[in-house]
Description:
Helices cover 19% and strands 34% of the residues. It contains seven helices and 17 strands. Strands 1, 2, 3, 4, 7, 10, 11, 12 and 13 form a nine-stranded mixed β-sheet that branches. A four-stranded mixed β-sheet has the order 14-15-16-17, with no helix packed on it. A hairpin with a 4-residue loop joins β16 (277-284) and β17.
Amino acid sequence: MLHGIINVYKEKGYTSHDVVAKLRGITGQKKIGHTGTLDPDAEGVLPVCLGKATKVSGLLTDKDKSYRAVLLLGVTTDTQDITGTVTKRCGTDCLCADTVQTVIREFIGLYEQIPPMYSALKVNGKKLYELAREGKTVERKARTVQIYDIQIIRMELPRIEMEVTCSKGTYIRTLCQDIGDRLGCGGCMESLLRTGSGPFRIEESYKLDAIREKKEKGELESLLVPIDAVFRQYQKIQIEPALEKRLRNGNMLRIDCRQEKLKDQEYVRIYDSAGNFAAIYKYVETDECFQIVKMFLQ
Length: 298
């Protein structure tokens, strides 16, 4: 069985589940999972975890994301993107580039965002997009997201191409509509490309055909990113043989960490005595010990 992460370039027309299904066929193994849904019409980075790496899926979903999007002003749709039914049109001749740029920059920082009805979020066990397709609208609570930066790449009104760096859970479709609403003309997302997800960048991603070709050449493992590579920001600690049994059982570990100068609740990478990546632990200052966060040995 393969263990690691493949940085997949999801092409337009595929759902994230389609990508997983196709990779199961290419690799011949069932234990595969993606790390964050991309809409079928969106393209770009979709890290996919294989084998033991599926344990890291949730941790990767929490990572920051970066996108390149095209905002179309003056058009509002029920899905907040160009694929939906147009619900309103508004002229944009009165807009000037300076005003648009000022309003867009106002969204940088913490931002209360109401998730769209056409999303995979669940209410009472049912996905919002399922309710939306039934013609139903339910109340959604605003969630705090963070926009770290927005760079305008090209502005040819009513279209604006921009790069957005944001926290997990941010809907770029909703951001586009909210910008349009604040400008008084409405707006929707015309296209979306995810350029980064945590440490995974679009320049190092592979389309499904390229992955299939690597498999046929017997070179598939060369595409696998090791599990511990996504945790390089955490300090590395290798244990002594005496702690091996406690580590494998996921027990609390007492390790002399004076040289590491760790903070309370700080995560570390734990390696067994042979140097194999084993787990993510966190340092508990009050007890001067390490507690398990996620085990990767089993």
